[in-house]
Amino acid sequence: MSRRTLGALGGNVLALGTVSLVTDISSEMVTAVLPIYLVLGLHLSPLSYGLFDGLYTGATAVLRLAGGYLADRAGRKKAVAAIGYALSAVAKLGLVAAGSSAAAIGAVLTVDRTGKGLRTAPRDALITLSAPESMLGRAFGVHRAMDSAGAFAGPLVAVAVLAAAGSSTGADGFDAVFVTSFCIAARGVLLLCLFVRDRRSAPATAKTVSPRAVVSLLRDARVRRLLLAACVLGMVTIGDGFVYLLLQRKEDIANGWFPLLAVGTNLVYLLLAAPLGALADRVGRLPVMLCGYGGLAVVYLLLLSPVSGWPLFALTLGCYGAFYAATDGVLMALAGPILPEALRTTGISIVQTGQALSYFVSSVLFGLFWQVGGADTAVGVAAGLVLMAVVGTALLLVPRKAVRA
C-alpha cells in the first residue's frame, strides 16, 4: 500500500494498529498454548474444551454492548477501550494464579474476554471515524494487517519462552508464557494512552443515546439483516484451537511445535489483510467476505481429505489465513456506513455481540458432536453448514440495495 494511501488513512488508524499489534503478541502467546494446556495438560474432553473455547471468545459478548453503549453515551471511546485493554492485561497474571484449577481458569478467561468485549467496539468505531468512508475497507485492512503481525509474532514468542524455560508442557513453561504475555500487554495499554487520539463528542443526551434509541436502531431493516447475517456466520465458525487440534490429531505434531500452526495462519493473514481490504473497497465488501467463508469451507474439507504432510499444512493454514483476511475487518466496514455516528459504537457492538454469541453456541455444539459422533462427523457437518451460511448470507444481503458493498 502506497505512502499516499497510508497518509490518507490518518495517523490514528496506524496508532490503533500499533496498539493492536502489541496486544495481539500478548494475547496470541496465550491463545497458541491454551489448547495443549487445557486438552493435553489438564486432560479436558472435547466438549469441555468447547465450553472453554466458547467462553474465551463468546460468553462475555454481552459486554460488547455495554462497552459500545457506554462509549457512545459518555462520548469517550478511547477511555472505554483503555479499560478493556487493561483488564485483559491483568488477566494474564491471573492465569498464573489459577494454576491447574479449571474453575479458576474459566474465571480468569472471563475477565480477559470482558476486557476484549469492552474494547473491541470502541476501537472499531474510532477506526470508522478516523478514515474516509470510501477507504474503510483499506483502513480496516491496514489495522487488521498490523493486528495479524502481532498474532504472527505471538506464537513465535511463546515457543521461544517455552524453550528458554526448558519445558514445552510443564507448568513452569506455561507460567513463563503468561508472565511475559502480561508484560507485553501492559506496553500496549501505555501506547494507547500516549498515542491514540480520541474522537470525543459531547456526552449524549438521553434522547440521542438511550435504550429507546438503540431499539429504534434495530428497526432499521439494513441493521437487522446485517445482524442476522453476522449470527448465521458466527454459528458456522469453529475455534482456531479446534482446527489446530484436528491438524495435530491428523499429523501427530509434537506439542512443542503446536503454537507454530497459528504462525502459519497469521502469516497469510498478515500478507492478505491490506490487499483484500483494498479489493473490498473496489469490487464490493460483501463478495470478498463471502469468498472468505468459502475458504473456511475448504479448510474443513481439507481436514477430512486424504491430503497429508506439508501440502496439508500449506493448504489448510493458507486458506485459514485467507478466510480471516477476507472477513474480519470487512464485516465492520460493511456495518460502518449504515450506522448513525451517535450510535456507531453501539451498533458495531450489537453486530459483534450477535456474532460472538453465535460463535459460543458453535464451539459448544462442535465439541459435543466431536465427543459423541467423532471428529470427522463434526467437521463434515461444519463444512456443510458453512456452505449453507454463505448462500443464506447472500440471500439476506445481496438483493438489498440499501446495504451497499
UniProtKB/TrEMBL annotation:
<dbReference type="GO" id="GO:0005886">
    <property type="term" value="C:plasma membrane"/>
</dbReference>
<feature type="transmembrane region" description="Helical">
    <location>
        <begin position="177"/>
        <end position="196"/>
    </location>
</feature>
<feature type="transmembrane region" description="Helical">
    <location>
        <begin position="356"/>
        <end position="372"/>
    </location>
</feature>
<dbReference type="InterPro" id="IPR005829">
    <property type="entry name" value="Sugar_transporter_CS"/>
</dbReference>
<feature type="transmembrane region" description="Helical">
    <location>
        <begin position="286"/>
        <end position="304"/>
    </location>
</feature>
<keyword id="KW-0812">Transmembrane</keyword>
<dbReference type="InterPro" id="IPR036259">
    <property type="entry name" value="MFS_trans_sf"/>
</dbReference>
<dbReference type="GO" id="GO:0022857">
    <property type="term" value="F:transmembrane transporter activity"/>
</dbReference>
<dbReference type="Pfam" id="PF07690">
    <property type="entry name" value="MFS_1"/>
</dbReference>
<feature type="transmembrane region" description="Helical">
    <location>
        <begin position="253"/>
        <end position="274"/>
    </location>
</feature>
<feature type="transmembrane region" description="Helical">
    <location>
        <begin position="226"/>
        <end position="247"/>
    </location>
</feature>
<keyword id="KW-1133">Transmembrane helix</keyword>
<keyword id="KW-0472">Membrane</keyword>
<dbReference type="InterPro" id="IPR011701">
    <property type="entry name" value="MFS"/>
</dbReference>
<feature type="transmembrane region" description="Helical">
    <location>
        <begin position="310"/>
        <end position="335"/>
    </location>
</feature>
<protein>
    <submittedName>
        <fullName>MFS transporter</fullName>
    </submittedName>
</protein>
<feature type="transmembrane region" description="Helical">
    <location>
        <begin position="378"/>
        <end position="398"/>
    </location>
</feature>
<feature type="transmembrane region" description="Helical">
    <location>
        <begin position="145"/>
        <end position="165"/>
    </location>
</feature>
<feature type="domain" description="Major facilitator superfamily (MFS) profile">
    <location>
        <begin position="12"/>
        <end position="401"/>
    </location>
</feature>
<dbReference type="InterPro" id="IPR020846">
    <property type="entry name" value="MFS_dom"/>
</dbReference>
<feature type="transmembrane region" description="Helical">
    <location>
        <begin position="51"/>
        <end position="71"/>
    </location>
</feature>
